[in-house]
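note to self — DONT lose this again. spent like an hour looking for the file last time. sequence + predicted structure for the chain T wanted, 107 res
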Amino acid sequence: MKVLTNRVRITNTGSGKATGTVTVSLLLSTDSTLLNAFATLKTFTVPLNLKSGQHVGTPVTFQYPADLAAGTYHVIAVVDSGNVIAETNKLDNIVAGSGIKVTPAAA
């Protein structure tokens, strides 16, 4: 099973300061919607102290499930699922990456 490292970037798009430790979940989906997410790849926390417009990037390492069938999948990041940061727009807390094609390993 291949270990992947990627970077998650969290941006404060609001007008106020974003302060607190948020939970970030990386989910695997058969499309770019949260509705079809079927596996949690990784859950971790990120401390934030961001003024409006600032961002923080954090590296994250994860693995796809060993029994993952061949196909195209999307990694979806959900930020602040615990609602630690007070904000008026939670719609930008979920983002899907572009499709990743998974092929079976050679025997």
